[in-house]
């Protein structure tokens, strides 16, 4: 019998197609910040996604602050983080869709009753909650099963820091080896792998021409096996369970 009893799902572009919406909002706000600081560079949502996929806005802004030597006092920084959450949540409530095939798989897993399931994200908890509710997944993931690196920890952080996965395991009363994570980004995969959690990579949310490249990126980061569609999840999970 398998020792895997807990499934930990990343949210953005793993359960729901939120990253394009989020990076559109992030780009709007990042460009406002750059303009206010007298910096001429501007970002599109796609450019931010390419450079910062898997990071939350706090981590992204820290990187931009270093890159451009921005003068952002902590209170101003925190205000921008809150404004970004509001903008992204607005876009999520208007247009969010689940990843293809995930609904059927979550229903099957939930009905089986074998696995405890939780969401482990870099994004702010209220953004994740908005995504889960909009997608109709709150029946699988109540609020106490949603963990946010930006909100749930005493010191906010972002993947690839493993802190949020270790925190989730502690709260759920599970050892990392009893869990399996599902991640679509390099930073998320590194976060789970560094926490000692076997990780399934998911590339189905990327454009077809990008999927092979991301398959190699996630494999190098430690994800094994890797799936391109949620219909492959059962077989991927079985591979891990046979190893444990």
TrEMBL record:
Gene3D superfamilies: HAD superfamily/HAD-like, Putative phosphatase, domain 2. One of its GO terms (molecular function) is phosphatase activity. Keywords: Hydrolase. It comes from Favolaschia claudopus. It comes from the Eukaryota. This is Haloacid dehalogenase-like hydrolase. Pfam families: Hydrolase (PF00702). PANTHER family: CBBY-LIKE PROTEIN, XYLULOSE-1,5-BISPHOSPHATE (XUBP) PHOSPHATASE.
